[in-house]
Design a protein that fits this description.
Chains A, B: This is Cysteine--tRNA ligase, cytoplasmic. Chains A, B: GO terms for molecular function: ATP binding; cysteine-tRNA ligase activity; identical protein binding; metal ion binding; protein homodimerization activity; tRNA binding. Two copies of one chain form a homodimer. Chain A is an alpha/beta fold. Chain A folds into five domains: 263 residues, Rossmann fold; 108 residues, no CATH class; 113 residues; 63 residues, no CATH class; 64 residues, no CATH class. Chain A contains 23 helices and 19 strands. Chain A has a five-stranded parallel sheet with strand order 5-4-3-11-12, with helices on both faces. In chain A, strand 1 and strand 2 form a beta hairpin. In chain A, helix 2 packs across helix 6, helix 12 crosses helix 13 and helix 16 crosses helix 18. The longest helix of chain A is centred in the C-terminal third of the chain and has 41 residues. The termini of chain A are far apart. At the A-B interface, helix 7, strand 5, helix 9, helix 16 and helix 17 of A face helix 7, strand 5, helix 9, helix 16 and helix 17 of B.
């Protein structure tokens, strides 16, 4: 405040008192934490760093929409925390490439291929199928789960349908080919059945360990490609169980040393009672009500490890395997307790523990992994680190249903990611996910997708309109027109919407509300643009561009628009107009000129290999890049940038035509050769012998071999004799020619 | 904790207690606030919204490096607050297009063009120049400021230099053409002088108001183009004084109504004493020590408004004009007090007040605007809104010096932005700014720019190397190799650096420290890459790519790398993100492989012409397109897409070095030849003649030509004779060698 004297001479020397504004209570990010089943304020443990571990796929088959449900939602959460809230996220994911499902599937595929390669006789196959049906029927009767039962019945029915025709073919001794086709059909239908049976009988003799790594490596590559296609960011670090076995062994050993694990018959089990009774720990933090649920526990133990003897090794049925002794036919690794392999739950504890240490901020996974997998992970790690906070925030993505039903192979509603991407683009799928909450069930149906498509179209129209407005020619000062009330009001709405969107993202990343707020903002812009149009006035370019850039920016944060992920300084300086043609043509020109220079020298100096290399460049390599070189004698080669697919089709067509031409030429050459051979064969016959073999026409011949009497001994007429004489002379000429050729050796 | 009973039957029904982690005290953004001359914690008034007003340019001439100093630094601050700290920034800037400088410049240009179009006779021009020199000399004598005085003297001198030749041409009645050329030269040199004189005499008769809008509109366009070239983001809203006169009039009226302004002789002045004495207000918040500084105040009143009568209209010399009555020849707008135009300070208060209301978060401007401009803005607005917090945080960018000196037209070190961009790219300028604190003085010198160029090169080589590593063909699972200690350590450094960078940005957006931290991070990566190369192992692609993407992202936030600002959904579906690199590299790869194939055959079949063609492609043709081929014996050629200018400079450098080497080689060969010739010449002398020519040393010789007596006829001592004998024998040997060579003709 001014000094009381009010005297204003040379001015006070001191700046007045200042205090920061009160500001408003900033709304903070809350996340739904499965550890409390509540939305909790999110506080990272160390500044802005967020350590995050997500359970990756078990890689033994194509990834399906259930995977998409989890990995697209976690991708959205990760991007929002990283790019919107600016947390410094360190995101790790594992690949389960050692697992009973993998072992079983690899062994079955291996044994079935071996069986098929031996090309069993029809009868043998029929016998084996019958043998395989016995254990199958037992399993069918024991199955209670309706979905699974239905699936097994379907297999049984298909096998019967394929068996009958083969039996008939065998009984009616049909040809090899017809039997073989029935064999093929039965082999295909009974594949699962036979594989199971072969595995149960021959599984333990399998010693080729490579089959247990080839299968997962293939499906891991497939998984990455699917994720790329869905625009899911790769993890910051990826861990594979097969590469962390030593760390897992140490992890198990320490749990045993800490008194929470015990060795039994070559396997090691986790002592849940011991752990639960300790003051420092709690078992079953996520799903306490599931503790003791044997069915869930068994599923966690893996198909090859739920035999009765395994159960007997445990002190309590609630205990679970940390390390499993391997039976013959199962891959194994050395360890203090004999030869075996990791249990399922321990992998994640060991790998996440190695990378993220004693306490991570976020652990994510699918909803159905809560128990036993995640609860057991928590127990293992808290037993290892002797703490009670291995995971601070546990996030579970909701289920995915297909048109209301659970997705399962039996209901034939099993949709792979590749299938889904044939029907919709990655962006449309992602918009659908954004329009749902990440933690609730998402029904993947035509309705769901229809509303996503509508949304995409609504937004796209808006972007196109704004781009059109921005293209209107205006001088550089014209883009900044004075704001009237409408601009001020639209701008106010814009900032209010941004605040609302911020609030929604703070509320457990509620993207459904965000998408509605974005839709409302676009509607407000549409109203503004229409109002300006009505009074023949140009809408304010800078304001509309700002709003459109904000919406594009949010879509990029959500991964619905691909971010330009180029590295470092863009080459070519600012504003290099990146139309493909203008960009690429200079480089192609250089390639073409270099090729021509090289061909010229090669022709002059007779270096055919270089000419072939130049042709291969034109015909095989460049078409792959959508480039067509057209060589014209004596003229510079014409360079064309064409749509790649069209070009490849053209190449195929050219090859087909060339192939046909080649075949025709070959055909013609063959026929010519045959004619020559026939001609030669004809020339070879001495005229004197030419008629002798025609005993079906003539009965007597003169001394030159010319026929004199026909079959019935009747003397030939003058006309007939004259005609034969002519043939005789013609042959004489040919024969002379033949002798001539034989002389100058032209028959090499 | 587990329930005390330890009984683990069906499991407890309740999840254990959970509490959020303590987390660490997040470091918050502090900004240096000129209102306290301290770094203050930055708290926006309403959630994440940040209202921000920046004083834009007075548009009457080309923008210079002083402008760049302010607008690049504010662009960096704005981008960091918007894209890094994710504040919801609303950034307004004005264009001063009504101002005494504009009025004077427009009128002078107008009158001078009229004078020139009348094509004055030589004699008339000479007379007028003399007339104009009178007031000019008065002004020169009155000028105290050393810079200004030097500039006026320079003009005076130049005019004299141009006057003499014209006078002579007139006296010696030279041809029309010669006279005209002298007239043109004098007109050009005396332009400022004549314009001033014409304006002082004819200014008041100018009535064509359009000249007062054409000049600023032109230079506003020029300013926007310069900003675009510097990659400075356009403001969210731009206000022009000429479009806000009604709002300004109301603003002045309300200040008068509130009792802080008074009308005097058609102008309106701000009553600083009244304002300062009020309990609710303080005057001179930014620079209290400058209150009363008449010189500074006068500069704020504008060149046309500091006449003595204007001063007499003020109640106190500290008062300043809110509204100025317009004199003839000055543009004017209707208002309650007759015809006039806005004062300088009131524009910003009125425009910012209209858009941002009673209290904004940030006001920015150049350091030398603190007093009187910004202090008067504060007074006006707080008088209007009757509050004491019109601006919460006042940010001033530091000065710019040119190689240590103040930039000024008189010192001829006045560098326009266009000049600067001819010498360096916008990115290099921005890197230089980033490597300095935004609030301190920045010296624009070759040193400053050299360190920026070094920095750019250091980063660019890193990006190129990472891109080369990422191109190494690896199957899709290969990009995720298991982390060893080196990867874990590099990753730890990476996250520590990100934390350090966050801390530096919180500390008043200290980009200088950030750039050093980024440099250190690159060095750590280089060490890691070198270590992996040393043990013939591939570096971890995913980790290096992550780090490179982070650095690129930070450079984009700082505006040093252009952001892809396309709107909406990219055309052409996913993966067509048209980064030049991704687009062009496949074609370059094909060119490189074709070249390698051709070189291989050419070497095998000894076709040197093709090898020369391949070298020419690498050395002459591809650099033009910014492509660098690096051939490594026995390894595939490394393809690098580099900035074209850098590459051409490199090629020039390479040629210069090769040229130098060639010259050195030639030089050495020439010297060698000379030595050999000298040696040969020496060998040719028969020993008998070798001393004969040395008559300055010896007077008598024996029969073999050996000297016996010195110059004075004195016999040589034994020692001397012995020494000469030795020389004689050495020459004998050489001579024999020479005869030998002559015989076997080795002198072609």
């Amino acid at each position: 405040m001014a000094d009381s004297s009010g005297q204003q001479g040379k001015g006070r020397r001191v700046q007045p008192q200042w205090s920061p504004p009160a500001g408003t209570q900033p709304c903070r990010l809350h996340l739904y934490n499965s550890l409390t089943r509540n939305k909790e304020v999110f506080i990272p443990q160390d500044g802005k760093k967020v350590t995050w571990y997500c359970c990756g796929p078990t890689v033994y088959d194509a990834s399906h929409m259930g995977h998409a449900r989890s990995y697209i939602s976690f991708d959205i959460l990760r991007r929002v925390l990283k790019d919107y809230f600016k947390f410094d996220v360190f995101y790790c994911m594992n690949i389960t490439d050692i697992d009973d499902k993998i072992i079983k599937r690899a062994r079955q595929n291996h044994l079935f291929e071996q069986y098929r390669e031996k090309r069993p006789e029809a009868a043998q196959l029929l016998e084996d199928v019958q043998a395989a049906l016995k254990p199958f029927s037992v399993k069918l009767n024991e199955t209670t789960d309706p979905d699974k039962k239905q699936m097994l019945e379907r297999i049984q029915h298909a096998v019967q349908l394929a068996t009958e025709p083969l039996e008939k073919a065998v009984q009616s001794r049909l040809t090899g080919e017809e039997v073989n086709s029935c064999v093929e059909v039965l082999l295909e239908e009974a594949k699962d059945l036979l594989s199971d049976w072969l595995d149960s009988t021959l599984g333990c003799d399998v010693t080729d360990n490579s089959i247990f790594s080839k299968l997962p490596k293939f499906w891991e590559g497939d998984f990455h490609r699917d994720m790329e296609a869905l625009n899911v960011l790769p993890p910051d670090v990826l861990t594979r169980v097969s590469e962390y076995v030593p760390e897992i062994v140490n992890f198990v050993q320490k749990i045993v040393d800490n008194g929470y694990g015990y060795v039994s018959n070559g396997s090691v089990y986790f002592d849940t009672a011991k752990f639960a009774s300790s003051e420092k720990h709690s078992y079953g933090k996520l799903v306490p009500e599931a503790v003791g649920d044997q069915k869930a526990l068994q599923e966690g133990e893996g198909d090859l490890s739920i035999s009765a003897d395994r159960l007997s090794e445990k002190r309590s049925p609630n205990d679970f395997a940390l390390w499993k002794a391997s039976k013959p036919g199962e891959p194994s690794w050395p360890c203090p307790w004999g030869k075996g392999r990791p249990g399922w739950h321990i992998e994640c504890s060991a790998m996440a523990g190695t990378l993220l240490g004693a306490s991570m901020d976020i652990h994510g996974g699918g909803f159905d992994l809560r128990f036993p997998h995640h609860d057991n992970e928590l127990a293992q790690s808290e037993a290892y680190f002797e703490n009670d906070c291995w995971v601070r925030y546990f996030l579970h993505t909701g289920h995915l249903t297909i048109a209301g039903c659970k997705m399962s192979k039996s209901l034939k509603n099993f949709i792979t990611i590749k299938d889904a991407l044939k029907k919709h683009s990655a962006r449309q799928l992602r918009l659908a996910f954004l329009m749902h909450s990440w933690k609730d069930t998402l029904d993947y149906s035509s309705n769901t997708m229809e509303s996503a498509l509508q949304y995409e179209k609504f937004l796209n129209e808006f972007f196109l309109n704004v781009k059109d407005i921005l293209r209107a020619p205006v001088d550089i000062t014209g883009q900044f027109e004075k704001w009237g009330e409408e601009e001020a009001e639209l701008n106010k709405n814009f900032y209010d919407k941004k605040t609302a969107i911020h609030k929604a993202l703070c509320d457990n990343v509620d993207t459904r509300t965000v998408m509605e707020e974005m839709r409302a903002l676009v509607s407000q812009c549409n109203l503004y643009m229409a109002a300006r149009k009505a009074v023949r006035k140009r809408p304010n370019q800078a304001l509309l561009e700002n709003i459109a850039l904000y919406l594009t920016h949010m879509l990029k944060i959500f991964g619905a628009v691909e971010e330009d992920s180029s590295l470092g300084f863009p080459v070519g300086g600012p504003g290099t107009s990146l139309s493909l043609e203008a960009t690429v043509m200079p480089y192609l020109q250089v390639l073409s000129e270099f090729r021509e220079g090289v061909r010229k020298i090669a022709r002059e100096q007779k270096v055919p290999e270089i000419l072939q290399l130049s042709d291969a460049l034109r015909d095989n390599i460049l078409p792959e890049l959508g480039v067509r070189f057209e060589d014209h004698e004596g003229l510079p080669t014409v360079v064309k940038l064409v749509d790649r697919n069209t070009l490849l089709k053209e190449r195929e067509e050219k090859r087909r035509v060339e192939e046909e031409k080649r075949k025709k030429k070959e055909e013609a050459a063959r026929r010519k050769q045959e004619q020559e051979a026939a001609k030669l064969a004809k020339m070879k016959i001495p005229p004197s012998e030419m008629f002798l073999s025609e005993t079906d026409k003539y009965s007597k011949f003169d001394e030159n071999g010319l026929p004199t009497h026909d079959m019935e001994g009747k003397e030939l007429s003058k006309g007939q004799a004259k005609k034969l004489k002519k043939l005789f002379e013609a042959q004489e000429k040919l024969y002379k020619e033949y002798l001539q050729m034989a002389q100058n050796g032209s028959f090499q």
